[in-house]
Amino acid sequence: MNCKKIKINETEILLSQAEMPNFIEGLSVLTRKLSQIEDVSIAICWAKMKEKIYLVARSDDKDVDVSEILKIVGGGGHPQAASAVISDMSFEDIESKLLCSLKKNIRKPILAKDIMSYPVKVVKENVSISGVDEILKKYGHSGIPIVDKDDNLVGIITRKDIDKAIGHGLSHAPVKGFRSHSIVRAGPNTGIGEIQDLMIENGIGRIPVTDKKKIIGIVTRKDILRFLHGRSYENLLELFPGKVKKILKVISSVARVLKYNTYLVGGIVRDALLRIPNFDIDIVVEDDGIRFGRELSKRFDCRLESHQKFGTSILVLKDGQHIDIATSRVEFYKSPAALPTVELGNIKQDLSRRDFTINTMAISLNRKNFGEILDFFGGREDLKNKKIKVLHKMSFIEDPTRIF
């Protein structure tokens, strides 16, 4: 039996072939044993016995459906086990077709670095319980990571822990005495499946992502649910006029050079879904919007206006087209109608500042998922059902100007 291992999008696959004069039962058992011995996620074995070729596939990866993979050779079955009987193909043709189907059906794995929220709000270990309580109230978090003087992750404390400490009259005590020392963590390249398993096994709702003890992000249950159920792979950019598409591709190119994440936001996304023409280009940058505007202006014949205080830039092209650029941010309101406290945030936090769910959608302009729709708050479903839904109950109380 001739066996070889290949890797497609970080998924290890075993391909095995054999030829024998007589029919022998047990190819499915052999395929399962080989996958266990070779420690691979997918095993595909085929053997010519008499005049026919019998093929069996097994998958231990819940994201890879081998019944879909085998359709190319006339096979079928279910996601974890499939088979085919072939009479008119050579071994070379079978392998060639399988490789094409494997590449088509095995997507690049979703990693912690793809879905984590960052930057992460942390507290130093010498901050008091009352101080942490105020931070949790301000940000609406149910827990927060704790770091030492060198910014190394040393623990996590939850809202429940804080409430207990306050209940015992220990508001003045430093948080380091109440932290959880047993930290379940993930690396930037940890797969989403492994993160889900860690959450279930440990009964936790958040996992910090660390690189050499430094916290670089955090993944919560909401991050996973929003990522798995809040994305659409329809490429709406194909609906835009050529001029707009050309501008967006230039924006994507500049973002790639600067290593910034950029997104198309606002009414143009909503109207694209409604098939309504809209030429208002609003961009959110997960970094320095001023620098991004400056670099982007070098690629156009335009006038640049920057507002350092707000982290925004406006490009006015020669034909009058505006490109509005904003740094992604998160806002906090101390009282109704008060001016917000603004901090840097990520795209999810920035979209959460919107008024209605139908205005919270974005389109990625990043190279790895260019044209993908981000819909964290169910805006697309509300648009489909012709619903105008307020994003937050306190939305118009915090900022009454949103109603205009």
TrEMBL record:
Keyword Protein biosynthesis: no
GO molecular function list: metal ion binding; nucleotide binding; nucleotidyltransferase activity; tRNA binding
CDD domains: CBS_pair_DHH_polyA_Pol_assoc (cd04595), NT_ClassII-CCAase (cd05398)
GO terms (BP aspect): tRNA processing
Domain CBS, first and last residues per copy: 116-175, 179-239
Pfam families (alphabetical): CBS, DHHA1, PolyA_pol
Descriptive protein name: CBS domain-containing protein
Native organism: marine sediment metagenome
Taxonomic path: unclassified sequences, metagenomes, ecological metagenomes
